[in-house]
Amino acid sequence: MARELTKKQKAFADNYIESGNRTDAVFKAKYKVKNNHSARSIGSENLTKLDIRAYIEKQAPGAMSRIVEISIKAKNEAVKLNANKDIVDRAGFKPVEKHEISGRIGSEELEKEEVNRLMDVFGDKKE
């Protein structure tokens, strides 16, 4: 049986459900963190805790119905669009975020072909 969440854990989970952003959820839950990196780490750690995951999963249908309601009833088109994007993202269709990688390994400058080869290995191709 899942144990009771602390006030901070519950606040984190509720904020995460609303925003989908673990870093913002940590700040809004009033964790004592000094920077975004620390908040992101705490958020990631919280999302691995079974009690928090169970709470989030239990609350998810209510959050989704609020988002669907917003997507239908909002008067502002931007709000409707964002709500619909959120529905698609949470359904697992969020586009993959791509990052460009460049730099040195040791003292060797990476050539474009080497970067492409490495990106192929890790599933992303630099054009």
Draw up the topology in text.
Blueprint: H1 7-19, H2 22-28, H3 36-46, H4 50-73, H5 77-93, E1 104-105, E2 108-109, H6 112-121
Antiparallel strand pairs: 1-2
Write up what this structure looks like.
The protein has helices spanning 7-19, 22-28, 36-46, 50-73, 77-93, 112-121; strands at 104-105, 108-109. It has a two-stranded antiparallel sheet with strand order 1-2. The relative contact order is 0.09. With 127 residues, the chain is mainly α. Helix content is 65%, strand content 3%.
* Annotation field: number of helices: 6
Distance between the termini: 50 Å
The main sheet comes to: 2 strands, antiparallel
- How many E strands? 2
Give the mean pLDDT: 80
* Main sheet strand line-up: 1-2
Count of individual domains? 2
The arrangement of helices and strands along the chain is: HHHHHEEH
Helix content: 55-70%
- DSSP strand (E) fraction? under 5%
Overall form: extended
Properties at a glance:
2 strands; extended; mainly alpha; 6 helices; two-stranded antiparallel sheet; 2 domains; 127 residues
Q: Would you summarize the structure shown here?
A:
The chain is mainly α and 127 residues long.
